[in-house]
Amino acid sequence: MEKILETMKRHRRNLHEIPELGYEEKKTQAYLLQEIKKMGYEPKIICETGIYVYIDGGAEETYGFRTDIDGLSILEETGVSYSSKHEGSMHACGHDGHMATLLGFMEYLRGKKIKKNILAVFQPAEEGPGGAKNIVESGILEKYNVQGMFGLHLFPKLEEGIIGCRPGGFMAKAAEINIVIKGRSGHGGQPHLGLDSIQVAGKMLEGFNLITSKFIAPFDPSIIAIGKIEGGTIRNIIPEMTRMEGTIRAFSVDTFNLIVKKIKDISRGMELSYGVEIDIDLAEGYPPVINDREYYNLLEEVVKGEKGLEFEEIDPEMLAEDFGFYQEVTRGLFFFVGTKNEKLGYVESLHNSKFNFDEKVLGNGLRVYAGICKKLGILE
């Protein structure tokens, strides 16, 4: 695999130089098509800038392996020789490494006896608006009878050599929420003539804290985070309008729906109690990532059988990932590949302008994918 790893490093660096936002990945797509064709495969375009490759193993069932391909609107500050050539855009979430891993996996498969079908998916727009949804809606998972989807993510909270995962709820369902409270302006010296939207916002925040602390079980993690509040114009004027912006996160769809219901109940109560008008705009994001227990056990066996790798069952992450769309229609497994290396300074978080990693970790993802194939009987 050493020779493949060198090729993966080259792919990673070439792709790192050309980050593109969701559904704008034209240069990325062209590079991927070129390299996939060089291997002798027949790639197909999907969802505008995405690619898939079907490898027929002569079986009824198919197993999918997915990578995301988009970058982020971040000005790179790594200082590496292969820094982004697209100013203001960067592969700050490891998608360049994910693509390199899947390309390396496809290289590894060449010449192997494949006994079950494989679907390799190069998916656009993970960072937004969620390309996995469009991939699923295209019908290719049903077309090829996909019985399981597998995906990985480089992760700087875990040390190099660690593969992290957990069964069940792994990553959160997320939504953006905007709340506008419309009161009535008035002089601060005559508060009875106005309807104070800021005061109502404060009451709502208290209510939100009660939702997660009193209506949801302590072992069912959830978050209502209001990160922005705007209201008022001058110190002695009662503000007519206050706007709050935040996010909701939960691992259970039922819990998520309960949170939304309670927020709406609180809003109606505020309207009745204080005479204000409250508008709520909820933009639902990605579904939760819920890992299949059998595939999780399989992953643990694979990692524990690989020299130099360690398996760790980790806590769930409140981060969101559109891989959950695949798991709504088929069984699936998503796991983390550790990249943290304090000695080399690879400690920056995802979505950080200085995020980087030692490219040797790409081989860890490749080894896990290969091990999964062997355990599932995809390879002899």
Summarize the structure.
With 380 residues, the chain is of the alpha/beta class. Helices cover 33% and strands 27% of the residues.
Question: Describe it for me?
Answer:
The structure is a single chain. With 380 residues, the protein is of the alpha/beta class. It has two domains: 2-170 and 288-375, Zn peptidases (Aminopeptidase), CATH 3.40.630.10; 173-284, Alpha-Beta Plaits (2-Layer Sandwich), CATH 3.30.70.360. 33% of the residues lie in helices and 27% in strands. It has helices at residues 2-16, 26-38, 95-109, 131-137, 140-143, 197-214, 253-274, 293-304, 324-327, 362-375; strands spanning 44-46, 50-55, 62-68, 117-123, 146-159, 162-165, 168-171, 173-182, 186-187, 222-231, 237-238, 241-250, 277-284, 289-291, 310-313, 332-340. Strands 1-2-4-3-5-16-6-15 form an eight-stranded mixed beta sheet, with helices on both faces. The chain has a four-stranded antiparallel beta sheet with strand order 10-12-8-13, covered by helices on one side. Helix 1 (2-16) runs antiparallel to helix 3 (95-109), helix 6 packs antiparallel against helix 7 and helix 8 (293-304) crosses helix 10 (362-375). The longest helix has 22 residues, at 253-274.
